[in-house]
Amino acid sequence: MSDPEIRDDREAGRLEAVADGEVLGHIEYFVLDSPEQALVPVHTVVEPAHEGKGIAGSLARDLYALAARERRAVAPLCPYVAKWAERHPDEAPPAGEALLNAAKHWLRAHPGRF
Question: Is the dihedral of CA 18, 23, 27, 28 positive or negative?
């Protein structure tokens, strides 16, 4: 199996790790525009056959890199991404309380989205 490629499917709100045509894992997210532009990861999933191979960490790292390229913040509501960010403060700037609250509010207002 080749190294996974990370692909952003913005329309579906998914950052996917793909190798040999197979999705090995993904982060589900949404885009928040206010109080600032941000990517908000909600769930991280790695297929059972591919757990323990660093895929979730690669997805989290690429999500923060994508946000940096787009000059967006990241408001991690996904527990995995939040823990990853705590362990990698040099790559994952913390989100402010107002941004996290706005992300939680958006998620509550869209209960069927995730």
Answer: positive
